[in-house]
Amino acid sequence: MNQPYFTYEAEGQTLIVHLPEELDHHNCSGLKYETDLILSENYIRRIVFDFSKTRFMDSSGIGILLNRYKQMALSGGSIAIYGAGPQALRILKIGGILKLMKLYDSKEAAVTG
Amino acid sequence: MNQPYFTYEAEGQTLIVHLPEELDHHNCSGLKYETDLILSENYIRRIVFDFSKTRFMDSSGIGILLNRYKQMALSGGSIAIYGAGPQALRILKIGGILKLMKLYDSKEAAVTG
Amino acid sequence: MSEQNKPEILKMELEALSKNEEFARVAVAVFMARLNPTLEEVDDVKTAVSEAVTNTVIHGYQGNGGIIYLEVGIDGQEIAVTVRDTGIGIPDIKLAMEPMYTTDPDGERSGMGFSFMEAFMDQVEVKSAPGEGTVVTMKKKING
Amino acid sequence: MSEQNKPEILKMELEALSKNEEFARVAVAVFMARLNPTLEEVDDVKTAVSEAVTNTVIHGYQGNGGIIYLEVGIDGQEIAVTVRDTGIGIPDIKLAMEPMYTTDPDGERSGMGFSFMEAFMDQVEVKSAPGEGTVVTMKKKING
Ligand SMILES: Nc1ncnc2c1ncn2[C@@H]1O[C@H](COP(=O)(O)OP(=O)(O)O)[C@@H](O)[C@H]1O
Ligand SMILES: Nc1ncnc2c1ncn2[C@@H]1O[C@H](COP(=O)(O)OP(=O)(O)O)[C@@H](O)[C@H]1O
């Protein structure tokens, strides 16, 4: 129950989204509203998802990733991922996400691309 | 569910009982039989209870300690405790055990007395 | 009222097996996490639940199995846990609740189960009828 | 037969609140610990339970609340989890189970819930009647 929510960090035109420990429907509820707001007020070319705290993820997480992917694809931006542990990695693979987004070893690599 | 059972170690006339992570009725079930057997086959003057793995204990643990105390008192032996964490310590205090058995900082101190 | 603040209830039926003692107290601990309790408050509730559930297994059903009915209610910052069995019941509740009193034949029990429930919860209420079963209701305010 | 090997059952009734999604999957994970599962097997079952429970909250009860009936059966090394709601039901189960199919209006769902249940469990069975509710039964052999 620690770190239930998303935290956001901006680095130039890159938005880093630090994901919660449990990435499920309950904890995903605010993300659409929050990222829409951030994307509308800032010029963001890249979203980086930080999975390093995430110990559990289900298809709700896939839903939010796919939707951010569509948003960024429309504006010509890109999406990257880093820090995924074994459980999240399996979900990302089975959910087809790794075909759409590149996985990096570190935050720096994910931001730089 | 790791280390559900007791393990025993002998040092001269001292019997060291390593307690399980969860010291409840379920995990206490075999102890009476096992210690009776050990006490009948060996000349034991002191029992040392090792709480260092124990994260949870309830009144079932108090029951087994009290009964070993009575057994040792009858034969003129003694009982010592070491390694108790905060939860076990509270139970040992409220259960009146610390008035009957001495608490030591380490295994060596508990064995030596 | 938001989802956060409405009274909530969780009901469980589990078998009176000694291995469910651990399951019961851990399940209640996980459920109460939403109240942001301190570690000590979680331990208090876990211990009280363990005592009441163990009693249904050993005394209520005398080791022969049966169903344990566990209810956890959360209302504001108060947690209420009810542990019910349909076992042999308690003929004299006042006597049963006395410290060190136990009917355990093999002498391994301490007779401190009810004392611990009372020590760790704010309120403990026992209802019982011989031949019908026992209901233990315990409440505690979680300050966090 | 020893206490170890008899078939066992656990029943839970919990409210269809999104915060109970985590409670449900953790409770099942704790209960199945007695089968000595691998970490991966625990994650598989947790994910499948999370999908089915989330569906009752979002789709079955459409966010308006209700009761989730969760049953966990253990028989030998097999775990069976049943998640039942008395919500709106599913008009076309075959369609609903197709990958990427979702009726979610706000577009944040992936439509992969059933696919994940099927990927992580050995067997998934869905029964549903519009206006009456939905029952999802999932089984998995735990090799440990
Ligand atoms: N659920 C129950 N059903 C029947 N008898 C019970 C139940 N719970 C407690 N008792 C009776 O109350 C006595 C005292 O209980 P308790 O204080 O928990 O100590 P202990 O479990 O060590 O005996 C028990 O020995 C038993 O006679
Ligand atoms: N318990 C349920 N009650 C009613 N409809 C359901 C239920 N579970 C699933 N459905 C229907 O099946 C569809 C597909 O479910 P699923 O594969 O889990 O994807 P998602 O939850 O992302 O929509 C849902 O969009 C919904 O229409």
- How many distinct domains of chain A? 1
By CATH, the topology of chain C is Heat Shock Protein 90
Measured distance between first and last alpha carbons of chain C: 21 Å
Mean pLDDT of chain C: 95
Radius of gyration of chain C: 15 Å
Top CATH class of chain A: Alpha Beta
**What is the CATH topology classification name of chain A?**
Transcription Regulator spoIIAA
Q: Give the helix proportion of chain A (percent range).
A: 40-55%
The number of distinct helices of chain A, counting runs of at least 4 residues, comes to 5
Helix and strand pattern of chain A: EEEHHEEHEHEH
Low-confidence stretches of chain C at least 5 residues in length (pLDDT < 50)?
none
User: What order do the SSEs of chain C take from the amino end to the carboxyl end, as H and E?
Assistant: EHHEEHHEE
Provide a concise account of the structure shown.
The complex is a heterotetramer, with two copies of chain A (113 residues) and two copies of chain C (144 residues). With 113 residues, chain A is α/β, with parallel strands linked by helices.
